[in-house]
Amino acid sequence: MFTEFITRLITLSFEEGKFPEMYKCASVTPLLKKQELDADLLSNYCPVSNLHTISKIVERVFMTKLAEHVKLSPNYKFQSAYRCGHSTETALLRLLNDVCTAANNGFRTVLVQLDLTAASDTIDISTLLCRLRYSFGISGPTLNWISSYVVG
Question: Where are the domains of the chain?
Fold first, then answer.
């Protein structure tokens, strides 16, 4: 019974291109970053968001389907996130290898590093959606679903 409900919800969500609005609300709990920090200073807290279980199930199904689609993209070889056997470590190793190879071949190399700790908080949604459309060929209800998911 519950499985049928979840399956129907996910199917409708994907067909309509809308993430269920009622599952976007999170319960936010402020947690002290380290026990030895001053509990009276708000800057010593980190917000932890807890989403509804159904929300996490819908997200997981979507990410599985999206990963299958992204694998067909020519840009996939540079993708590290959500890819089996790839991680931040493998991305850094690739970067280091590229820099060393360029230096060994006599090229000048400049490495610019950015702190993207809060990158998801500052990303321009329209740029993201355009990138998904033109770099990965995502369109229609799938693109609408992503838009409804990321827009408050």
Answer: 2-73+116-150
C-alpha 41/C-alpha 45 separation (Å) is 8
CA angle 127, 52, 55 (to 5 degrees): 45
Query: What is the C-alpha to C-alpha distance for residues 83 and 104, in angstroms, rounded to an integer?
Result: 30
What is the rounded CA–CA span in Å between residue 17 and residue 143? 7
∠ CA 128-51-10 to the nearest 5 degrees?
Answer: 70
Number of neighbours of residue 90 by Cβ within 10 angstroms? 12
In angstroms, the CA 50 to CA 29 distance is 8
Tell me the HSE value of 14 on the side-chain side, using a 13 A CA sphere: 14
pTM, 2 dp = 0.65
Question: Angle at Cα 143 formed by Cα 138 and Cα 145, nearest 5°?
Answer: 140
Average pLDDT over residues 74-100: 78
pLDDT of residue 73: 72
DSSP state of 34: S
